[in-house]
Structure formats: C-alpha cells, structure tokens
Predict the 3D structure of the following.
Amino acid sequence: MLGETKVSFSGVQPSGNLTIGNYLGAIRNFSLYSEAYKCFYCVVDSHAITVRQVPAELRRRTYETLALYIACGLDPQKNTLYVQSHVHEHTELAWILNCFTMFGELSRMTQFKDKSTKHADNINAGLFTYPVLMASDILLYQTDVVPIGIDQKQHVELCRNIADRFNQIYPGTFTMPEPIIAKDGKKIMSLAEPTKKMSKSDENANAVVYILDDKDTIIRKFKRAVTDSDTCVRFAEGKDGINNLMSIYSCFTQKTYEEIEREFEGRGYGDFKLAVGEACAAALEPIQKEYAKLLADKAYLEQVMAKGAEEASYVARRTLGKVKKKLGFVIPSSHT
Ligand code: ATP
Ligand code: LTN
C-alpha cells in the first residue's frame, strides 16, 4: 500500500507474440484496478533473457508488448506502464532478496522444472532465481494485488514467503501481496494438446491463438483444435479440448456453460468451433486496430515508457532505500 492507495502490479515477458491466454488470464484483468488502485504494469525484459533471445526481436517485442497493454485498454494516464530494465532497482533488490530465499524453495518451482527440461542446454542461474526477480518486482511497489494466470500462483506464494521472512527480521518493510486469479480464463490450454497450457513460446503456431492473428487464421486454428470422438458440446471431465473451447467462448461472450450447452444442443463440434472462432475474432478486432495505430507511433511509445519509468523509479527508490537502511548498509551522504 502506498499511503492510503492500494497498489496493483503485474508483468508480461516480451518473449514472443502474446496469446489469448496472456490476454484472458492476465492483461484483460489489469484494467479492473485502474480506477481505484495505483497500477504498475511492466514489460519484464530482464525476465525474458533467462532463455536466449535474438536482440532485434527482444527490442521489437518490448515495444509491441507495451503497445498491446495500451490497445487492451490500459490508459497510460491512469496506469504506470514501463520497461523493467529501465528501473535498475528491480535487479538491485533481487540480489538482496536472493539472500533471503532458500535453494530448496527455488528447487520446487514448477516453472523452473518445466523450463529447464525444455532448455536443457541452458539451465542458467537466472532461470533458477527468476522468481526472486519477480518477488523484487512486486515488493518494490508495496503491492497489494497481483493479477496473474494460475501458472504464476506458485511464484506469488514464494514472494509472500520471502516478504514474510524479511518482515520477521525487519518488521514493517514490505506489504504482503495477494495473487488475483480470474475465475474464467485463468488457464487457457493449447489447441493442439489441451492438457498443456497455451504458451507464447510454443513452437507449434497452430496450438496457439495470438492476439494479433487475423480472423481467417483464428477461425482456421479453432477448426483444427483437438477435441474428442463425442459430438455433444458439454463441459465434462476428460473432454479437455471441448472444456477449453467452452472456457474461451465463455470469456469472449460472457455466456455461462449451461447457456453454451443449450445453444449448441443437437449441433456438432464444427458449428461450435466456428462460433468460438468468430467470437474470438470479433473481440480481438478493436484491440488489433488500436494496436496498429500505436505501433506506428514509436515516439509516443517511447514517451509512455519514459514517463512510466520515471514514476516507477520514484517509488522503487524509496522502497530500496528503506530496505538498505534496515539491512545496515551505509547510505552515501549524497543520497540522503
Ligand atoms: P512463455 O511461453 O514465454 O513462458 P507465457 O505465454 O507463459 O510465456 P508469460 O509472459 O509468462 O506468458 O505470462 C504473462 C501472464 O499471462 C502471466 O500472468 C501468466 O500467468 C498469464 N498466462 C500465460 N499463459 C496463460 C494461459 N495459457 N492462460 C491463462 N493465463 C496465462
Ligand atoms: N513471471 C511472470 C511475469 C512476471 C510477473 C512479475 C507477473 C514477472 N514479474 C511480477 C506478476 C508480477 C510470468 O508470467 N511468467
């Protein structure tokens, strides 16, 4: 909490083209807090380099992710939108928090286990301490709520453990953050393997619907989505593909599962898949239009990120100063 105002913080990595999973699980929910909370939404480029990135692509995606934040409804006047590496306090606090995080805790993180299997040739220390940098992102802003997809819940729980451990030794340092996980859209699954999370770094582009896919592509991908040999559109255990499509359709149309089952009673999967594709394309169209305008104005995006970094730095500097004092670091006289 910053004074009387509650704080919302979240981030997305510029590690690929953003998917409808990123939108429905995270970004769409960021704007719920814009009015009543002080909101910090960050493009986490330092996290992205835990796996190898092509420099030109990382740079381009950093602009693109910022443009998508705005196109998805985050007004830069009401939200602090910025790039993580522009505020050096993130990595500085991360070092300190590393000294308050246990090896065993980090070893239990499922994202680390998944990513180290996937990138077996590059199991670097950054991949291992990734959640500590994430804890630093969150704690620097005295955050109350962290809107995320369910896959990030374990990381926010670790962040709470780190904050608690630090506060036990140095009382009153950090606000305790709460993960906020939307009821609908918290885990959108791959269209090709519906038991696996839809992920922007999936090599199979047909498994993933990107926010920027055009209507024909979206419809084609939903048509090819893996389902089952049943023909009845209903939500049930074991029908992972249909359950996923129902959850996507429900998110884009606000219809309940019962309404969806009634709507498609006696109709086959083909009709249903087409309807999901159309609803998704219709919802994404205004975002895509706004995005195209924003991306054409690089100077504007640079202005947004500069203003965001200035606002974020102000708060980050204060928290880091407090932490250093509590630890017993000598504060240079030029900083007081
Ligand atoms: P990567 O494939 O590079 O690991 P990702 O697609 O998992 O990326 P992140 O940048 O790690 O995306 O996540 C940004 C936010 O989007 C997080 O809050 C995460 O929980 C959420 N998110 C990611 N994928 C999904 C999904 N399939 N369903 C719901 N939320 C998701
Ligand atoms: N680890 C997150 C991205 C992220 C984040 C954060 C989310 C980095 N820092 C702080 C919430 C709060 C992910 O989605 N992979």
